[in-house]
């Protein structure tokens, strides 16, 4: 059972995917974490992230390893645990520029496909291009959406007491990242034609999880 969950930032992809995978005994892959990890590596090695040619030339050098246990997902680069540093503002601001480079996407897509192929008894993979590009033959594709306001409110609640930028600034940053991710040339953020769209604006996280679990179970029963 291969499930692809895509959607813009803050729609609940990670929370939903992890919970669905845990409930159904599937593996879990956060592909955003992989793009964040390669971005962290570029910054750490002084690669100019405004220079796509420099990013392309370095794209094959980082060794990214993702752990797919939904109750304890892990991510390392060249053996270093980068779970925390990939969530910094510095990485978040740079990730769309790095993920737009075709050589980066080719490398990470290959890695994602090999992880999905080896996952027993199946996997929930979340990202931006899973249904359209990475796993076009997935058994189930879900596209989560939510209003920009709801997504910003969720994110600023999460950042409170840390580097909270305020609701407006958070909303603007989300919109900028979504615009960059949706308009890049190579595998942009998009809903696959055969994906089930779920608008989460008015739903609790538990309701979204239940909805996706039901969709998976229907597929498993051949409905
Ligand atoms: N339906 C929901 N109602 C309220 N809060 C939610 C809902 N879904 C997710 N959240 C909360 O919103 C925040 C963002 O969720 P999550 O990280 O799962 O989104 P995402 O789509 O994976 O974001 P990104 O693409 O930026 O990684 C989390 O704090 C999560 O608990
Ligand atoms: N399939 C994907 C997943 C992610 N990206 C890029 O990574 C960024 C971070 O993703 P998060 O889910 O951790 O917020 C995202 O903004 C994209 O630039 C991608 O391109 N494809």
UniProtKB/TrEMBL annotation:
Q: Which residues form the Cytidylate kinase domain?
A: 3-217
Q: Which UniProt keywords apply?
A: ATP-binding, Cytoplasm, Kinase, Nucleotide-binding, Transferase
In which residue ranges is the amino acid composition biased (Basic and acidic residues)? 153-165, 174-184
- Return any one Pfam family short name: Cytidylate_kin
Its recorded reaction(s) are: dCMP + ATP = dCDP + ADP; CMP + ATP = CDP + ADP
Q: Where is this region: Disordered?
A: 153-193
Binding, ATP: 7-15
Superkingdom classification of source: Bacteria
The Enzyme Commission number assigned here is 2.7.4.25
Query: Which compartments is it annotated to reside in?
Result: Cytoplasm
PANTHER family per record: CYTIDYLATE KINASE (PTHR21299:SF2), CYTIDYLATE KINASE/PANTOATE-BETA-ALANINE LIGASE (PTHR21299)
Q: What is this protein called?
A: Cytidylate kinase
- Organism ancestry: Bacteria, Bacillati, Actinomycetota, Actinomycetes, Kitasatosporales
């Amino acid at each position: 059972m291969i499930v692809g969950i895509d959607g813009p930032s803050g729609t609940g992809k990670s929370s939903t995917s992890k919970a669905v995978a845990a409930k159904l005994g599937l593996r879990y892959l956060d592909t955003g974490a992989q793009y964040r990890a390669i971005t962290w590596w570029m910054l750490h090695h002084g690669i100019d992230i405004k220079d796509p040619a420099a990013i392309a030339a370095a794209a094959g050098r980082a060794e990214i390893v993702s752990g797919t246990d939904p109750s304890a997902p892990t991510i390392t680069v060249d053996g270093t645990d980068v779970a925390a540093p990939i969530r910094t503002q510095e990485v978040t601001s740079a990730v769309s520029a790095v993920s737009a480079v075709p050589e980066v996407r080719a490398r990470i897509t290959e890695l994602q496909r090999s992880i999905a192929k080896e996952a027993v008894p199946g996997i929930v993979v979340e990202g931006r291009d899973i249904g359209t590009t990475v796993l076009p033959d997935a058994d189930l594709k879900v596209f989560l959406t939510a209003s920009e306001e709801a997504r910003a409110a969720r994110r600023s609640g999460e950042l409170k007491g840390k580097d909270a930028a305020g609701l407006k600034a958070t909303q603007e940053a989300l919109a900028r990242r979504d615009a960059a991710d949706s308009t890049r040339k190579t595998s942009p953020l998009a809903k696959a034609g055969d994906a089930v769209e779920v608008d989460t604006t008015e739903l609790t996280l538990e309701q979204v999880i239940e909805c996706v679990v039901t969709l998976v179970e229907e597929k498993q029963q051949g409905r």
